[in-house]
Amino acid sequence: MSSRIGLVMLGGNSMKEITKVVVDAMGGDNAPHEIIKGAVEAVGKSDAIHVILVGKEDVINQELSGYTYNKEQISVVHTSEVIETAEPPVMAIRRKKDSSIVVGLKMVKDKEADAFVSAGSSGAVLAGGQLLVGRIKGVERPPLAPLIPTEKGFSILIDCGANVDARPSHLVQFAKMGSIYMEHIMGVKNPKVAIVNIGAEEEKGNALVKETFPMLKECKDINFIGSIEAREIPHGQADVIVCEAFTGNVILKLYEGVASVLVSKIKGGMKQNLRGMIGGLLVKPVLKKTMKDFDASEYGGAPLLGLTGLVVKTHGSSKAKEVCNSILQCVTFKEEGINEKIKECIQAEEKSAQE
Amino acid sequence: MSSRIGLVMLGGNSMKEITKVVVDAMGGDNAPHEIIKGAVEAVGKSDAIHVILVGKEDVINQELSGYTYNKEQISVVHTSEVIETAEPPVMAIRRKKDSSIVVGLKMVKDKEADAFVSAGSSGAVLAGGQLLVGRIKGVERPPLAPLIPTEKGFSILIDCGANVDARPSHLVQFAKMGSIYMEHIMGVKNPKVAIVNIGAEEEKGNALVKETFPMLKECKDINFIGSIEAREIPHGQADVIVCEAFTGNVILKLYEGVASVLVSKIKGGMKQNLRGMIGGLLVKPVLKKTMKDFDASEYGGAPLLGLTGLVVKTHGSSKAKEVCNSILQCVTFKEEGINEKIKECIQAEEKSAQE
């Protein structure tokens, strides 16, 4: 099927390359409805995308029949199995060969598609991404790297859950990959890179950070600014927040937890008396906007970087908007040649190590 | 001096034991003014306290002269040196023998006082607590354990910065000490103990958590409920949040960071238009109360548990209220015999290990 997609003519002589994105139609709390809606929205926004919806054909076609869209931009690949969130990931990947996740990831591996987007089981997407797609030569571990909201905009948090108990050399590569992503996808010039630490001084930290810090200082291709304490992360003091996956996962999830409890406490407080209730009605749009700004899903999913193709994990609770944003993000990723840039950067590192 | 303090007669025959608290008058951003104010407030609230202010005598006496208080409840010990926040902690402890922190901690070690409270250099208080005061027999590592606010009230976060790269056996002791603290100081019956993890399933986690989890499950003297994801911490799903110090420090500081950025974003949003401004005025008390509920300093300082005496670290930015609460907390700590309970618990563990 993918052989039918390739270059299309746009407005006369200009040729535009199509980004082929496989979307897991079965994954996430709101599948298939919101997933398919998001896919339809994405092709409506760009004619440089072809979406391949993978999952139960009859269910997908039934959903699709409710929409008007350019039929040439969406195709369907049938799979009979679904990996559930509760399943042990590695085992699920090995056993369910005809699941949307396994089939989708294999299409990326086989270059039938550029990217795979899923709101399904995080564990299965991470394990499958690493086991099935394969790493760019020289990349030791592919990190999961979501954007997190800050006072100033957003930062990339790398790694947030793919490689627990990582080694210093992994963290150095994360710093480089995150830096490339922020510069070329998010347009941040000379992004500031910091390592999460428990104090600002160089001598602080656990064994991993103490060993990684001088290595990051030595890197000439990143703008390393030193340690960042967790308190400063939401203030946007750095663009690339480097950490081991356990720490990153705690940061990502605590962000959500604190924000949601704080806002629910404020809302609860407003209901205590008439003054609060009236005030609450007046500030409702502000609260809504603040929560929206603080909602990572606005920025699309989290890429698993350093693989030969792109794998994007979106929230399990993703709605159409996040799915659509994640698909559009894949286009920028391809157009900016992020993987080529990662390859160059990692191989330059290897070369300089050999010299 | 301390020999003069001991048992005092209260209302006829009843005898009340006095808790002797050494307070570092020189430590923290607001020293000496707010520290001394807090000490005066504390003795005003309970006649079962004797505060020993340690620091520059003339400065302390000058401050004290502005207050009316029971002169028998406050004494002053002169020290000539001050440990600054930026100094390397261990070196500072070794070199500045006549600093308020070193002298204060030695008084606890020598049983001239029950507790030491400081808003000074965290590193010096932690290092000094471990090096100078000494551990309860059987305690492997003393954890720093602040209370953190949650939707339901508060939880204890143990360890939040004293022992990076801790081992599983340390975490098991943290769980027990945290459990004793929550039950006997905070009055939480059968406190729920959870270990911070990156997923709810037992097979998730890094090497440390995977090794610690089954050990916690085996503990008969705690109510272990399993893993807790960072997202659930602010919802108050557990009373005792067990983690390694690096993770704990990230949690504590991110809590502060997210809350402060979120509230400043909400406030900023309210200033955008007249509707928001009016609403903002009306909800101001609610925002203020929410931030206050979410401010850990309301609950006093963080105890360094497992030492032969009590060492309490309060925020560097502590004002009188937190200092006062921290001093009062020392009284409960002594009255409830927390250290005796920790000793019993740890020694029961050793005994059962020998059997």
From TrEMBL, chains A, B:
<comment type="pathway">
    <text>Lipid metabolism; phospholipid metabolism.</text>
</comment>
<comment type="subunit">
    <text>Homodimer. Probably interacts with PlsY.</text>
</comment>
<protein>
    <recommendedName>
        <fullName>Phosphate acyltransferase</fullName>
        <ecNumber>2.3.1.274</ecNumber>
    </recommendedName>
</protein>
<comment type="function">
    <text>Catalyzes the reversible formation of acyl-phosphate (acyl-PO(4)) from acyl-[acyl-carrier-protein] (acyl-ACP). This enzyme utilizes acyl-ACP as fatty acyl donor, but not acyl-CoA.</text>
</comment>
<keyword id="KW-0808">Transferase</keyword>
<keyword id="KW-0594">Phospholipid biosynthesis</keyword>
<dbReference type="GO" id="GO:0005737">
    <property type="term" value="C:cytoplasm"/>
</dbReference>
<dbReference type="Pfam" id="PF02504">
    <property type="entry name" value="FA_synthesis"/>
</dbReference>
<dbReference type="GO" id="GO:0006633">
    <property type="term" value="P:fatty acid biosynthetic process"/>
</dbReference>
<keyword id="KW-0963">Cytoplasm</keyword>
<keyword id="KW-1208">Phospholipid metabolism</keyword>
<comment type="similarity">
    <text>Belongs to the PlsX family.</text>
</comment>
<keyword id="KW-0012">Acyltransferase</keyword>
<keyword id="KW-0444">Lipid biosynthesis</keyword>
<dbReference type="GO" id="GO:0043811">
    <property type="term" value="F:phosphate:acyl-[acyl carrier protein] acyltransferase activity"/>
</dbReference>
<dbReference type="InterPro" id="IPR003664">
    <property type="entry name" value="FA_synthesis"/>
</dbReference>
<dbReference type="InterPro" id="IPR012281">
    <property type="entry name" value="Phospholipid_synth_PlsX-like"/>
</dbReference>
<keyword id="KW-0443">Lipid metabolism</keyword>
<dbReference type="GO" id="GO:0008654">
    <property type="term" value="P:phospholipid biosynthetic process"/>
</dbReference>
